[in-house]
Design a protein that fits this description.
Elements: E1 11-13, H1 15-21, H2 24-38, E2 42-43, E3 48-53, E4 56-65, E5 72-80, E6 92-100, E7 106-111, H3 112-131, E8 138-142, H4 148-158, E9 164-168, H5 172-185, E10 194-197, H6 201-205, E11 210-213, E12 232-235, H7 248-253, E13 254-258, H8 262-266, H9 268-275, E14 284-287, H10 288-293, E15 305-309, H11 314-332
């Protein structure tokens, strides 16, 4: 986007506002065009993580730009309370605070619980444009939590040929409920796409042209031997060594890509596979910025299996916050 003049006082951008001004297609396009132009100028230290209790944590994710053409800095404050699912509260909640990097002026406070869902799913959507087969027809969604409907929308936006979505969740009722909710939304964005749930994961993994996972699992859910030739495996859930959504065989069979280098040291699937010698660090083909820039080749043919592991980064957070802030202030004028 062009150089932007900030408003005189900070604004609050709510969940409702996000839904009214942002689409998954818009954010995927923004990441695709902006990652290569701005990522080199954005500083993003390793996120700080603090254990609040044995099961909960606080994370701080700062970033700032050194370029006059991208005059922003910001920090995302995240809480991870997985036990909240028992009380129907989100397990991950967050706020993003955006500042001017030229004056230090506060610009906006954004509901980053929802922004993170958009940002995370659109990173996966952008990756699927490079790594999934362009004629993919079936998406298998592993997990039915808050991120699942966003991932479904992002993949459908990125790969228009998708015509069927099969949802699995450890609690089968949650998968059925998500199917019903999507079908009842009737907003036109799912036209021509069928939805169903299935309680047997091993039975449906082999159906997926794209298999997208968003769980907190600490046991391998996706067995590599079940993946069919040409599948794109999208791993979103794990961000600790103890967490993993697929087994070593899935990593061994696939060409592996990451959203950023932190995935290699944080994600249980990759950390474990590296420790056990299943792959070497040099086997990680590329990160998302390299794919978007065309510096590295994504999918090479229709037969290979591709694996994309994301753990999130402050770079895509600030890019998402920038887009939301600039659209919000423009439509509010």
């Amino acid at each position: 986007m062009a150089n932007f003049v900030p408003v005189s006082s900070p604004v609050f951008i709510s969940t409702d506002s996000l839904h009214s001004i942002l689409s998954h297609q818009t954010l995927i396009n923004h990441f695709q065009s902006s990652l290569t132009k701005t990522s080199a100028s954005i500083q993003s230290p390793i996120r700080q993580s603090y254990e609040v209790s044995p099961s909960s944590s606080l994370l701080l994710m700062p970033s700032w730009s050194s370029s006059p053409s991208f005059p922003y800095m910001g920090v995302k404050l995240v809480t991870h309370f997985p036990q909240n699912s028992a009380t129907n509260l989100p397990g991950v909640q967050a706020t993003y605070v955006l500042f001017s990097s030229s004056t230090g002026q506060p610009l906006a406070s954004i509901d980053a619980t929802e922004l993170t869902l958009y940002r995370t799913s659109c990173v996966s959507g952008l990756a699927s444009k490079y790594l999934a087969r362009p004629d993919s027809r079936v998406l298998v969604m592993v997990g039915a939590g808050a991120l699942a409907p966003h991932l479904i929308r992002a993949h459908l936006s990125a790969i228009p040929s998708l015509r069927k979505v099969v949802i699995w969740n450890r609690t089968a009722e949650k998968a059925r409920t998500l199917v019903d909710r999507i079908q009842e939304s009737n907003d036109g964005s799912f036209e021509g796409v069928s939805f169903e749930s299935n309680a047997c994961l091993d039975e449906i993994i082999g159906l997926g042209d794209i298999v997208s996972c968003a769980t907190n699992s600490e046991i391998a859910l996706v067995k590599g031997e079940k993946l069919k030739v040409g599948t794109h495996l999208d791993l979103v859930g794990s961000f600790k060594h103890s967490m993993k959504e697929c087994d070593d065989e899935a990593i061994r069979r696939g060409r592996v890509f990451v959203d950023n280098e932190a995935a290699i040291v944080e994600a249980g699937e990759l950390v474990g596979a590296l420790q056990r010698g299943v792959i070497k660090k040099e086997d990680i083909v590329a990160n998302l910025a390299e794919l978007a820039a065309g510096d590295k080749v994504g999918r090479r043919n229709s037969e290979e299996i591709t694996v994309f592991k994301s753990v999130g980064s402050a770079v895509v957070d600030i890019l998402a916050a920038q887009l939301v802030y600039e659209i919000y202030t423009r439509v509010s004028e």
